[in-house]
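Subject: 2-oxoacid oxidoreductase (ferredoxin)

B.,
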Amino acid sequence: MSTEAEVTTTGVKVELPKSYEDIKDLIRVDRLPHIWCPGCGLGILLKLLARAIKNSGIPIEKHVIVTGIGCTGRLGGYLKLDAYHVTHGRAIPFAVGLKMANPELEVTVVGGDGDILAIGGNHFIHAARRNDDINVIIVNNFIYGMTGGQYSPTTPKGAKTTTSPYGHYENPFNVPLLAYAAGASYVTRWTVLHQNELYQSLLEMFKVKGFAVVEVLSPCIIYTDRNAMGDAVDLMRVLKERPVIDHRANLADLDIDFSMKKIILGNFVKRERPVSYG
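Prediction pasted inline below.
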């Protein structure tokens, strides 16, 4: 079962699955098929984010999506709402500027671990410190996937990438601990396979007054190929079978190492702090 077919800008007929019926007015079918690799989790995130936006209680015209460079960069372009695709690492300051200019907007940044935490890392910690009233979704696939498979700030120690062919020597960021320590009001982590939990966190994110961070673990075939872990489906199996949900976990225990035997998920932080702007 599917929705009525539409012809895209490339002349291809595309039909959305029946499960997209409730959000078909938010999806730009004319731009499909999307560019993401088979097995990538970004399609799942697109569906859940569209559904959360639609059910947020906030008018669609108030929502704005900002993306930087990388696999996540095209996500906003598949949604029928105001979206900006900006330069590498600069999505957060762009989003903060939008919010300062028009505090009524609900501004959401979607970016990868490299875009948000490396090139944009300085912006991330200071936006959290100021508790800027924006949302940041970090799609953590443990690598720079689109730009060549280089290591990122979340690549586990020992993992092989194009820039660490003998195994990565550096310790990765513990994203929830970093966000909390910097000052974020809301911090959560899910995989793309925990769809209901992730959807609920996205809904909650829109209610938070302050800097809200949702880390989303997503498979990448570039990462699995480099580390002889099979394909994206094999990494999906790891992300499905090994996580433990512990909302009260000690944030210092949320590191993800190369074995991925310990992946803790949950809604870790929700607190009220004064916001600097908005």
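Helices lie at 42-54, 91-101, 113-119, 121-130, 175-182, 195-205, 221-226, 232-241.

T.
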